[in-house]
Design brief:
alpha+beta; Phosphorylase Kinase, domain 1; Aminoglycoside 3'-phosphotransferase, Chain: A, domain 2; 2 domains; 5-stranded antiparallel sheet; two-stranded antiparallel sheet; 9 strands
C-alpha cells in the first residue's frame, strides 16, 4: 500500500518529516505494517538505506511510553528497534528497518523449535530486568479491566448475551479464581503481548516489538502468551514441552518460577484469563474500531478453552457457562 494522497494532512506531514529526517528530498513511504492500536509503520525508500517511520498520532497514542520502555529494554540487553531520529511532539520516529517477516510469518513446523528457543532466551532477558519503582503492576485493577472486556464486548456486544443471575455468578466466580491465581504468582517484568507476531528474526534477536504496555506481572503470563498464541496454534504436547523447557531454563537462571507442576497450572490459568480478555479485545476492534479481521481467530480461543478448562474442577463454572450459553450463541453468530 503506497503513501495516501498528499492532500491528507497527516500523510503530508509524515512524508515531509521523513524526508527531513533522512536528508533525502526524494524519499517515498510505503506502508510496512499496522497494529491493533493507532500506530502505523512506513518503509522509507530513497538514496539512504531502508528505514521505518513510526507514526503515532499524538492525539490518539502518545509515543513517550513506547520510547521509555524501549530504552529500559535496550539498556537491559533486550534486542529492540534502534531509534535514529525522533519528533516526540509530532509523534514521529525514524527506526532501523528490521526487515520483512515477523517470527509469526517465518515460523514453520520444521523451524519452530529453533524460533521458540530463541524467543525463550530473549524473554528471560526481559524477565530479568530491574524495573523502576513506578512501572505499573499487573494487579487487581488491570485484571478487572481485562475481565470487563470479555463480558462487555464479546458476550454482550458480539454475541448479544445478557447473562442471567446464574450465569453471571458463574462468570464472576471463574474470573475471580483466575485473578487470584495471577495475583498469587511471583512477579517479573511482563510484556503482556509476547507472541510471534511481535518478534522479528534478526541477529541478536528476536527483536521485540509492541512493548509499551510493560508491567510487573505474573511469571507465567509471557511464556503462555508466546506458546499459546493469539494467531498460531500448536499441538498441546509440543506446547507443554516448550513450557517445560522454559521452566528448566528459567529456574537455572534464577527467575522466580515455582515448582514445575504449579508452573504448568499457572500457565494454563494465565492462558485462560488471557484468551477471555483477547476475545473481548477482538470483539471491540470489530464493533468499535471497524477492524473485523481479528475475530476470525475467535474459534482458536474457544479451542484453547476447551483444551484447558475441563482439566480443573475449580474452573467448572466457566466450563458450564461455555457449554450452556457461550458456545451455542457463538455458533448462531457464525452460522
Amino acid at each position: 500500500m503506497s503513501e495516501p494522497a498528499l492532500h491528507e494532512p497527516r500523510a503530508a506531514q509524515r512524508l515531509a518529516w521523513a524526508r527531513t529526517a533522512l536528508g533525502d528530498a526524494g524519499a517515498t513511504l510505503e506502508r510496512a505494517s499496522t497494529d491493533a492500536g493507532f500506530r502505523s509503520y512506513w518503509r522509507a525508500s530513497g538514496d539512504a538505506p531502508s528505514r521505518i517511520v513510526m507514526d503515532s498520532p499524538p492525539d490518539k497514542e502518545d509515543v513517550r511510553p513506547w520510547l521509555r520502555v524501549r530504552d529500559l529494554l535496550d539498556d537491559g540487553g533486550v534486542r529492540v528497534p534502534q531509534v535514529l531520529a525522533r519528533d516526540v511532539d509530532a509523534g514521529f520516529l525514524l527506526l532501523e528497518d528490521l526487515g520483512g517477516p515477523t517470527v509469526a510469518q517465518a515460523i514453520t513446523d520444521a523451524n519452530a523449535d529453533a524460533h521458540m528457543q530463541a524467543a525463550i532466551a530473549q524473554l528471560m532477558r526481559l524477565q530479568s530486568l530491574a524495573l523502576p519503582a513506578d512501572v505499573p503492576v499487573f494487579g487487581e485493577a488491570l485484571l478487572q479491566r481485562d475481565a470487563g472486556l470479555f463480558e462487555e464486548w464479546f458476550l454482550r456486544r458480539h454475541l448479544g448475551i445478557e447473562l442471567d443471575c446464574g450465569d453471571a455468578e458463574r462468570l464472576e466466580l471463574a474470573q475471580r479464581r483466575l485473578m487470584d491465581n495471577a495475583l498469587a504468582q511471583p512477579r517479573v517484568p511482563t510484556h503482556r503481548d509476547y507472541m510471534p507476531r511481535n518478534l522479528m528474526p534478526v541477529d541478536g534477536g528476536p527483536a521485540v516489538l509492541d512493548f509499551q504496555d510493560l508491567v510487573l506481572g505474573p511469571v507465567a503470563y509471557d511464556p503462555v502468551s508466546l506458546l499459546r498464541d493469539a494467531f498460531l496454534s500448536w499441538p498441546e504436547a509440543r506446547v507443554e514441552g516448550w513450557l517445560r523447557d522454559y521452566h528448566a531454563r528459567a529456574a537455572a537462571a534464577g527467575l522466580p518460577v515455582p515448582a514445575l507442576d504449579m508452573f504448568l497450572r499457572d500457565a494454563d490459568w494465565c492462558g485462560v484469563q488471557r484468551h477471555l480478555k483477547i476475545l473481548g479485545i477482538f470483539a471491540r476492534l470489530h464493533h468499535r474500531d471497524g477492524k473485523p479481521r481479528y475475530l476470525a481467530d475467535a474459534p482458536r480461543f474457544l479451542a484453547y478453552l476447551d483444551a484447558v478448562v475441563p482439566k480443573y474442577r475449580a474452573l467448572d463454572p466457566l466450563r458450564e457457562l461455555l457449554e450452556r450459553t457461550i458456545k451455542p450463541a457463538f455458533a448462531k453468530v457464525t452460522a
